[in-house]
Amino acid sequence: MNVHALSTLILVWASTLPSNVYAQMTYACPSAGSTTLPISPADGVITIRLPRVSPSNGLCLLTRQNASTGGERVTASRSYAGRDWERSPGEFAKTGSGLVVDCTQGSALECDVTLPALKSGFEYILESHTYDISEEAESARFLEQATFGATRETIDAMTSSSNDFASWVEDQLALPVGSHREFYRSRTNPKYEFPYKVGATGPRPCELHSRWRRYAISSLDGLSNRKTGWYKHLTVELKNGKYLWKVDGHFRTVTTTFPIGHDLWGTERPLVLGHRYRIMHKQGQSWIADCVGCPVSVKSSSGDETHIEIKLDNPEVSVAGIEGNANILPFSVVDLPVFKSKDLPTIENADDYPLFSDYVKPFENALLNTTALEGSNQCDGLPTFRKPFPLDGSNSPPGYFPTVFGRSADGIVFAYDPHLKFYENTVDNPLIDGGGQLVLDTYDVDEVAGKPVLCQNVERSFLNEDGCKLSFQPNVCSPRETPNEVIEITEANLNGINALKGRKLYALTGLPFTDDVDTSGRSYLKSPCVTSTSRWVRKPDDAVCANTANLG
């Protein structure tokens, strides 16, 4: 952009004329090549009349400055591109500044500007500018304002239309409605541990697309993500000549060397064995801990020397010599496919993040890319990772998740790394249970840690009614409601309901599930599988009534 100061008009004050005279006097902004035009001076507050700037690329400024040096400049008012005069942002835009702009007294092309009195040694000046901008720059500026960012392709397309902005806007309005939030959410997969209103952990250890890491301490350990105000704590214990690293009292890894860190001045600081150190959260930098050898900061909650912040190298996950000890490792190590194979590929490598290569190391994160483990019994008994375990005792957090370990077929040990999973829940394809299963999975977690997930649907409106679907899911929920749990009608459950409610509840047996016919072969009692008048409702996924248990 080329900006040119065309000329300057100076307003100075004396005491010869009353201020109300100037409301009838019109002054034009100086033009190119003109000389400075003095205005008859006056003391105190005055009002002058100014025309709007007519050129589409013109700008006129009314500015206060030091009369001797030309410095200490503050713009008071402005008119540009044919617009009315207005107060400029800053000092003169404040209430009580004394500057008044009134565009109702003169002609439609003029405004009265009342100027506040000046301090000694200051003056007002009028100055004009103009600018030239290329068609390409103008296109880029428009697209920066109207889109999420201009690209070379969009700029070229706009300039090829001679910057027909009006037609571009009309074309955009004719396009299908898009969702920036939907685009973002379908492409993000953050670490996620304790459930909250918006969601809970997605794939569990044996499920497709579960995530695994090789570093013992996660960036989530430095966050108070329990939504309870509790932080996580690290302790290191010596057992049988090995050093056990634990978070909130639960095993993370084992090392053979004494844990030594460094303080902020580089001095070596050995950890005190058995001492609780709070894992610190570095604002905006928690993610730098997510690699083997990357810095993890800890600090004791006591007031002694251990209160010093200590940086440790994040150790590698290991279960050497620990397997078989249920007191330390309560769950069996999951058998994973060969690392770097198509079933367990490496992800989040340094090549994908060149600007963060110091903290994103190669071959330290894996993705389970097979459903083979879902049919096995390896993960039987593992936690759901949607409802934390309670912790009792003094100075303990209200809940935790244990660490589950896995070993690839080529011998590499991993820790399960819980992440958030996003389900498609769009206007055209709403989540069929409204998020009801997540609500049930996390219903009472606020008594332990985290917050229950809310139903992820909304009331019908003109924006979504065309995509509304009727759900037959037993766990479906409505906005601001909790879905009902499905209770199977068994003798044990009936006895429990009777005992709880103090009233009898009966179940009917022997109801026919096939057509009954009379002697002439005519059906007089139809099966609920073939009639719409039955009091039985067939589940949608049992198309041929193959399972009578699906009638209920």
Give your account of this protein's structure.
This protein is extended. It starts with a strand and ends in a 27-residue tail after the last strand. Helix 1 (135-146) packs across helix 2 (152-160). By secondary structure, the protein is mainly beta. It has helices spanning 135-146, 152-160, 165-174, 180-185, 436-441, 491-501; strands spanning 2-11, 46-51, 58-66, 74-80, 86-87, 100-102, 110-115, 122-132, 211-213, 233-239, 242-247, 250-255, 260-262, 268-270, 277-279, 295-300, 310-313, 334-336, 365-367, 389-390, 399-400, 405-408, 413-416, 516-517, 523-525. A hairpin with a 4-residue loop joins strand 22 and strand 23.
Brief rundown of the structure:
This protein is mostly beta strands and 552 residues long. The chain contains six helices and 25 strands.
